[in-house]
Amino acid sequence: MMENCATLVAAFFGVLRAGAVMVVVNPTTKSDKLNYVLNDCGARVLVAANRLARVVLPATVSTSELEAIAWAEGTPGTIDADATTSERANISFEDVANSTASDPRLSDPGLIDEDLAAIIYTSGSTGFPKGVMLTHRNVCHNAWSISTYLELVADDIVASVMPLSFDYGLFQILMSARVGFTVVLEQSFAYPYDVMKRIVEQRVTVLPGVPTIFSKILSLAPYDDLDLSHIRVITNTAAALPPAHIRRLMDLFPRARIYSMYGLTECTRVSYLDPDRLLDKISSVGKAMPNTEVSLVDDDGIRVPPGVVGELVVRGASVMRGYWGKPEETARFLREGEIQGELVLYSGDQFHADDEGFLYFVGRTDDVFKCKGEKISPKEIELVLYELDEVAEAAVVGVPDELDGMAIKAIVVPSSSGTLDENLVRRHCRSRLENFMVPKFVEIRKELPKTESGKIQRSSL
User: Which label site among 25, 69, 437, 440 has the fewest CB atoms less than 10 Å from its CB?
Assistant: First the structure.
């Protein structure tokens, strides 16, 4: 548990080399959630940044399996009496790293590719995070597949601004180990212009991000005093980029190949849009990545034809082992596929495909709601909202309404491009959408709530 740094990378590979399982915890996690994660996965050792002692120590008081805390910068100084962990060893990570003690398991931990490598915690429907189990096979396959279709090379310099607790950030490190490129680790994206200056100073060639990050980058454009011509690849996942933002990114980074991708923690990545098809398939997240197969099915598990919305099903070596300690939840998402005995991932995400097989995200199954008897896909309305230069971020939700049962509410964050008001939003929606899809309520906010991975958190709206 620490911010992005070299020590975290060393700890990650050290744990794998020892044959153990790695869990990376976001450094902004609070004590109660950290306590849940430690107990849920039965953590034996916690490697933590010293500055997080006030969060870490209360979280470790009631943990049954924890044996030691390895502090990244020695051992913490003053510890509150009510937060003591006297029954656990407080050791220095540096002492462990510099230890001359030999252990034969470090040269051969005795694992095969089906053994567990990492547990990545993702938000759960119950309010408690779920631990996604990734095997060594999952990790190696995904690092190979993603770095292959992105055509990454050893000379690349990749800026990683996402926390390594987020699989998108973590796989920048794993792909680096495979390909040999350089990673520039940023601790956050709180000060976008400063990060962009460092990207220029480090001659970064690959810029991975999520829509909220690219929205911030675009809000500060143009960068007349910065040379961004060395950026040759831009990648996006977590949520689909609005077409309006894609066009602006193409103007800002004219030499970059932009990869619009789709993925979920349960299989890391699913699809990517070939940059050569970006303009004629701008709303699509492309086709399945190498060595992965996808299909769209109805509620009975029957494949649907092109143009019909269905749930995305993923097949291949990328699919997780399951959710740690949650067999019932695992059985909901991992089900037998068309080949007897093979488990495939039911994503819970709704898509439709065109005649060429390109995928178009519609929304999460849980996000779709009915208004005036019509099914409403928030994503469709959000894409229209993003067409406005005055909108930096947008989210659409259903809210209880006496007349309609559920009414459409749009929550928008203004950009620096001009004045944004409710009438402008409604006029634009009426010009682009059917009447039943025009938001009844519009709220303007300074910011939208985000998950740790930078996704807009609908449940909080």
Answer: 440
